Amino acid sequence: MKKIYSLLFFFVSMFVFSGQDTSIPLVYISEYSEGSGNNRYLEIYNGQADSFDLSTLALAITVDSPEQIGNHELWVNFPSGSQIASGDVYIISHSGASSEILNKSDFTYDNLSDGNDGIKLVKGSESDYQVVDVLGDWQGDPGEGWNVGGVENGTKNHTLVRKPRHCFGEDDWTTSAGTNSENSEWFVYETDNWSNLGFHTSNCSTSDKLAPWKEDFPRNSDWQNDWLLYSTGQGSSGFLSPTGGGAVIFLSTTSNGAPNASLNMISPVSNCTGLDKPILKYREYYSGTVAWEGISVHSVYISNNYNVTNYNTANWELLTSGSAPTGSRERQFSIPYTTKAVKFEMKINGPNVRGDGWGVGPVEITSEELLSIDDIDFRDIEALYNSEKKTLAVNSFDKALKDVEIYNLLGQIIISKKLNTNSAKIDLNNLNKSIYIIKVVTDDNKTKTIKLSIN
Predict the structure, then answer these.
(1) What is the bridge-based pairing of β-strands 326-334 and 434-442?
(2) Which residue has the higher pLDDT, 2 or 115?
(3) SS3 380
(4) Count of CB atoms within 10 A of residue 260's CB?
(5) How far apart are CA 71 and CA 73, in angstroms?
(6) Beta bridge partner(s), residue 308
(7) Tell me: the pLDDT tens digits for 48-77?
(8) Do residues 158 and 148 touch, judged by C-beta distance below 8 A?
(9) Which CATH number among 3.60.110.10, 2.60.40.3080, 3.40.190.10, 3.10.450.50 corresponds to the domain 378-454?
(10) Which residues pair with 425 in a beta bridge?
(11) Separation CA 269–CA 409 (nearest Å)
(12) For 208-367, which CATH superfamily applies?
């Protein structure tokens, strides 16, 4: 079932807006099958809160061993009007596949992988695109197929299903495939297993949080509806509310000397369109019998334009320090992207002593230079959108306008105007239907951010 949402124009300050606009489309490959005969398909899942227009994406494919390593050979556009509703899937299959597959298929394409063809889900044009997700690579013929999760030739005569805890695409196939069943992003099933076709199970939230925000993890609240927690190894996740704020605490139940356990926390999407320089800030806790330095939040994965990067937090700025055996310390990290959407995973490793605990909280997305509603009085700025002529009029009743910039929801500047006047008219005829952010700067360098939806 496909849903198409229409957006009505609205004009509000970013700091009173409370809608659920998804800043980054969390769309990725959820299932793949290469089986007997022509039984091949690719399933794409929409993990965001709204319907997604697939015509903005494409499939870029290599066949066997590409003539030029690293370059695609086939470019496949999705049919115009292709939509995926929130939480729904879209299926591309071979036209000669079984009727069980074809009955659930949305689109047929006969050059799907026979095990050794690299596929990338991409956004943009054939000459200028960003990688959303990958299955295989473009680095030459792997033979029969690529290994996945420790399974030899996992992309040949197997069905791959994305694990529920993975919430966005991965542009690095080595990371996605993994080396064993634990670190792979995929469940690997035998040939012609289509029991998961037509739906995808995800443990990830489709909601987003408007930054700046701070999560104190209070008791008896609904914060766990936004965050996904899962643990690996021996241990149990518990909850503690230390002085100064709440925290998620992971308590070790291992025998002394046993392998470390870990706790993973996947955040909701953060809409950072109102922040000039977003930073991630958090406090970590340790209570136990061994050195404090043995525990920290050691990795944060930040989703940026469909890419995910692993950052070791050992070199993050240490704001406060604690001392063993019990203490807390605070760290912060400047998010190194111009994008305005952030999703991160915090992996907490700790000591291997029974009864010791470690944890994190509060966690916040803030900014070095927070824009404020006090920067410019809302009454002193007027912005009028003419939907018939597709023009935007910006008027200042006090200070002269210095700059007007218009951003898309990936944080990219679409229009930039240098001004020295109290009013300006801007042609928006080249903008597609979408949500945009208008940043207005006056001649005394005060800033106002406004959201605009073009329907």
Answers:
(1) unpaired
(2) 115
(3) helix
(4) 16
(5) 7
(6) 303
(7) 767 899 998 999 999 887 778 889 999 999
(8) yes
(9) 2.60.40.3080
(10) 393
(11) 13
(12) Galactose-binding domain-like (2.60.120.260)
